[in-house]
Amino acid sequence: MKKIVSRRNFIKGGLAGTATVAVMKSKETQAAHSFEGYPDGMGVLVDLTRCVGCRSCEAACNKEQGLPTPAKPFDDYSVFQEIKHGEKRRTDETAYTVVNQYDIPELDHPLFRKIQCNHCQEPACLTSCFVNAYTKTPEGAVIYNSKVCVGCRTCMIACPFYIPTFKYSSAFNPRIMKCIFCYDTRLKDGKPPACVEACPQEALTFGKRNDLITMGRQRIRETPGKYVEHIYGEKEVGGTAWMYLSSVPFDQVGFDTHVPQEPILNSVKDFLAIVPMVLTIWPGLFAGFHLLATRKEKIKEQEMEKKEEKA
Amino acid sequence: MKFFSKERPEIPIVNHLKADGTEWTIKEKLWLGLSLGEYKKQFLRNPVNWLMIAIFAVGIPLLLQRYIYGLGAVTHASNDYPWGLFLGFGLFGMVPLSASGFMLGTTVELFGRKDFHPIERLALLNGLLGYFFAVLFLEVDLGMPWRLPYPMFVSLGPAAVLFLVAWHVATYLSVQIAEVLPAFFEWIGWLKGKRVIRKMVLGLTIAGIILSTLHQGALGALFTYAPSKVHPLWLSVNFQWIHFFCSSIFAGLSMVIISSTLIRNFMAWRCDDEFKDNLDYITIGLAKGCSYAMITYLIIKIVAIAHDQEWSYLLTGWGSYYMLELGVAVVLPMFMFAIGIRHRYVGLIRFAALIAALGIIWNRLNTSMICYNWQMYQEIPHWKEVWITITVYSLYFLTYRFIVYRLPIVYGWKGEK
Asked: Would you say residue B34 lies in a domain?
């Protein structure tokens, strides 16, 4: 195979290839700055010391979101004993929030922990979504648009709290199912979500996230010994709108205390940063390699031409 | 299949013209110059085809089940394990094994190593088909497969790693189609098209390197979204992309060694002398590439452990499993390659390539499934999920064979070029 590419043609080809790629990719690093969250974002402070595990919040959520009626009614407390794959109950396509019971050896009563979407300040689901199906609203909710979702389920991989669930049962209309902070029906009008309203124990406090942090610190300070000195969600994965107070170390009540203290996106930034570098450096580098590698052939050709001219 | 040469000297087709001087029609070329009866006879005689029929007989109904009743009906994909075999094997495994296209393209076109030319087209085809079927696996796995073009045209999330993967795989697929087209143009006899591509070949090759670096890396970077879920030994937040990229180099080269070995042994009638005579030499050359990539990979894997201070993990059960993976899937084939190169044991090299390729699949399955959620339970794929994976892979095999039977991939076209 004989192939002679003039330097001009070669550079033209290389540049055209790169330019096409560069134009398409130029937007990729735009989100590589940190985002502290909207200043007036709302949140909920969950006080585990107040929760009695009545599951009223589960029932309210089920009704508000029009989810299917579960097999066991909401006043059936045997669900706390359910163990699947060695894990306690979790959110699924029929439940956006669940309460789990934790027996603590030092305490004479169990503790209950409600899980739902924590509505991160810089959500991993949102930053990992390649069709922009997620939005963090100024009110603090992380909402989802099923109309553009492709069903790749990367958000489920990315969520450090295992919250988004997928409707695996549907072939024609699958979607991600997760808590949206009752955004459509309540939050956008300034009203608290259904679960908070239903709580008879005031275990859930709705308010501006900033105020809730102050309130949480105040509770910790005013009742010494009652709480662990930590508000889970203040710093975790860059901060979440839903935060927790607990009387025992958080890992004893099912919290993952090893999640990063910065947004999940930060661990992806290393890669995002090399993208423009590869796009700009590789063409020149490999063009250079090509010129070096084919230099002997070029010299030979030139000598041949000279000889021919002489002859 | 040696009957081609004995009874019918004009078959296999390597030229536009038959022995009597008339031209082959495209249809005749598609039937390999055989009559329908002859084609059927050779098809049914091959036991591999019977195996394929058996796989498809079960696999196609299962695929229908997946598209009618949803993923839940055929997989164990769950809310804890969103990704199963379709992506763990089909995307994360197939893509590194398809790095061959850009590797050999670079070697031949960019570095001017013409001695690797006989295998270039096979490497390009291996790349093209690998990517194409990775996309097909994705189409089986996506919740809404009909929305595949959404990230390109409907709703863009440009800051996401998967956005990069989508765009790069799509563009690279086009680049690879362009790179394989000359073989097709020769075969149908449309030389103008071939000349057009010829002019773009360097641009295509460089675009191939860029796109490959980025999306092989991006597949690794996808796991950096789960820093608290993947076992720390299999996840290096800083170096994941380069681990995936570096390992794709020897994965792709190993895959070409495997594929060329199979073709050389079972399709000898289709290979020309240039391919057959040079294959041992080329295999040793590819093995050199593999061993360099492997030692680099081994070192950067260790660097990552040092960087993240993860030595203590090596003493745990997961650590033993990790060292088993590195030992069997990297160190062992690396030494086999080295010994094979030193003593010119081509057979040993071929065996090493098989281990290395399986080793990469193992690594990707470890990262995406086995060591994912390492603090929870391990997901075991549904048998239907396994069967569908084998079905799609069989389709890949059949397509691969169909093309190599016909197009000038492992033989040179004797007609006009």
From this structure: no
Q: Give all domains of chain A, ordered by start, each with its CATH number.
A: 1-34+275-294 (no CATH), 42-262 (3.30.70.20)
Residue B377 structural domain: 46-406
B201 interface with A at CB cutoff 8 Å: yes
Say which of A1, A131, A162 has its CB closest to residue B157.
Answer: A131
Domain assignment of residue B323, yes or no: yes
Q: List pLDDT tens digits, range B113-169.
A: 889 999 999 999 999 999 999 999 999 999 999 998 888 888 888 889 999 888 888
Contacts of A157 in chain B (CB under 8 A): 82-83, 222-223, 225-226, 229
Q: Is residue B121 part of a domain?
A: yes
Kindly provide the ipTM of the predicted complex, given to two decimals: 0.89
What residue ranges of chain B have pLDDT lower than 50? 1-3, 5
Cβ contacts of B225 on chain A, cutoff 8 Å: 124, 128, 154, 157-158, 264, 267-268
Counting the structural domains of chain B, the total is 1
- Judged by a CB distance cut-off of 8 A, whether residue A17 touches chain B is yes
Q: CA nearest B166 in A: which residue?
A: A130
Residues 18-37 of B with CB under 8 A from A: none
Question: Is the distance from CB of B136 to CB of B98 less than 8 angstroms?
Answer: no
Q: What is the DSSP string of A31-97?
A: T-S-----TT-EEEEEETTT-----HHHHHHHHHTTPPPPSS-TT-GGGGG--BTTB----BTTBS-
What phi and psi values does residue A45 have, to the nearest 5 degrees? -105, 120
- Which CATH number does the domain housing residue B184 bear? 1.20.1630.10
Dihedrals phi, psi of B334, to nearest 5 degrees: -60, -45
Distance CA B204, CA B102 (A): 10
Contacts of B217 in chain A (CB under 8 A): 271, 274
* Chosen from B76, B108, B114, B210 to mutate, greatest number of chain A CBs within 10 A: B210
How confident is the model at residue A14, as a pLDDT? 53
| Full DSSP string of B176-222 | HHHHHHHHHHHHHT-HHHHHHHHHHHHHHHHHHHHHHHHHHHHHHHG
**CB-CB under 8 Å, B71 with A30:** no
pLDDT of residue A16 exceeding 80: no
Confidence at A32, pLDDT banded by 50, 70, 90 = very low
Say if B21 falls within a structural domain: no
Q: Which of residues 263-322 of B touch A (CB under 8 A)?
A: none
Q: Please check the confidence at residue A155 and state whether its pLDDT lies above 50.
A: yes
